[in-house]
Amino acid sequence: MANLRTTKLGIIGAGAVGTSVAYAALIRGAADIVTVYDLNSARAEAQALDLAHGTPFAHRAKVSGGGDLDLLAASDVIVVTAGAAQQPGQSRLDLVSTNAEIIRELMPQLVKRAPDAVYLIVTNPVDVLTEVAADVAGLRRGQVIGSGTTLDSSRLRWLVAETAGVAPRDVHAMILGEHGDSAFPLWSNATIGGSPISNWADEAGNKIFDDATLADLASQAVLSAYSIIAGKGATNYAIGLACVRLVEAILRDEHMVTPVSTVLRDYEGVDGIALSVPCVIGAGGVQRVLRVPMDQSEHDAFHRSGEAIRAVLEEIGQL
Predict the structure, then answer these.
(1) What is the pLDDT of residue 97?
(2) What burial class does residue 228 get, using C-beta atoms within 10 Å of its C-beta: 0-12 exposed, 13-18 middle, 19+ buried?
(3) Answer CATH for 8-146 from 1.10.3720.10, 3.40.50.80, 3.40.50.720, 3.30.930.10
(4) What class of enzyme is it (predicted)?
(5) Can you say which residues are annotated as belonging to the binding site for NAD(+)?
(6) Are 131 and 99 in contact (CB under 8 A)?
(7) N or C: which end of the chain has fewer CB within 10 A?
(8) Phi/psi at 109 (nearest 5 deg)?
């Protein structure tokens, strides 16, 4: 039997999110090599050593870490988590100036070492930084993507499942637009076990998801990060799992459909702005951007997200 190709996952940032990505990757066996880079080389080395000590209990993988970008050479996927952290009460968009400069400086150095890698941007504000990264990198379309509303959609699915009393895997619902305050659920396409969410009822035949319930669930999904940050300083475990699920889809060429942030071309009238929409994810990153029907309120919400991101891009001179 021919040897399978060795896969390599590079992670930028040895903080809470970066190490959660590495930890999830080891447990799920996402890649054969996992490398963590951080400007603080001692921290990256220590995190890698701690992770490596657990590999006898996880999938076999080679783990390394340090402060030399050359460690990331020939990576298949690079997850970028480096940047200033979001503080309690601070919006994601408030982070933009500092983190945009970090991305502008970092991306050319990464592309030089791993020109064929798929770059998954996680640093916030992720839609703005996905646009910045794609512009600076100069790679083909779809090779630079943002984690976007993958996590928001997961939060929504969990909330709907808890309300309906079903397994999250049987809920199909997405949040689109900005990964931030203007994100919105695509309720018109949401289903539970194949049944439209608007038809879902309890055993007595009473419909569960009225307008007030849907509005509350949407608010919880979009704003829950703030309560987590207030309570423990960062969101890290769920985004770590979400990122690794995307890494798996890329490395295994799964053709998985999920919303991620990508620079759009005339999508619902939005052009040249990175927002989350359903995409086919596989080898090479975004293989196809899917167009989904939206009702008028969803169309309007999508444009509001686009305008929010456009305003920030203009402020930092990106447009």
Answers:
(1) 84
(2) middle
(3) 3.40.50.720
(4) oxidoreductase
(5) 17, 38, 43, 83-84, 122-124, 147
(6) no
(7) N
(8) -70, -35
Annotated binding-site residue numbers: 17, 38, 43, 83-84, 86, 92, 122-127, 147, 152-155, 157, 172, 235
**What tokens were used for 135?**
């512009």
β partners of residue 256: 281
Cβ atoms within 10 Å, residue 266: 8
Distance (Å) of CA 70 to CA 30, 64, 106, 114, 143: 21, 12, 13, 9, 20
Q: Which of 179, 255, 299, 303 is catalytic?
A: 179
For the whole model, what pTM was predicted?
0.94
Angle between helices 296-315 and 126-137 (to 10 degrees): 60
Residue spans of the domains in the chain: they are 8-146, 150-315
Cis peptide bond prior to 115, omega within 30° of 0: no
179 is annotated as an active-site residue: yes
Please name the CATH architecture into which domain 150-315 falls.
Alpha-Beta Complex (3.90)
- Parallel, antiparallel, or unpaired for β 8-12 and 144-146? unpaired
Looking at the chain, the number of H-run helices and the number of E-run strands are: 8, 14
Q: Mean pLDDT in runs of 10 for the chain (319 residues)? A: 76 97 97 98 98 94 97 98 76 77 95 98 94 95 96 97 95 96 95 94 89 95 90 93 98 98 95 97 98 96 95 86
What residue numbers does the annotated binding site for substrate cover? 86, 92, 124-127, 152-155, 235
**Which residues are part of a known binding site for beta-D-fructose 1,6-bisphosphate?**
157, 172
Please state, as a whole number, how many other Cβ atoms lie within 10 Å of the Cβ of residue 138: 12
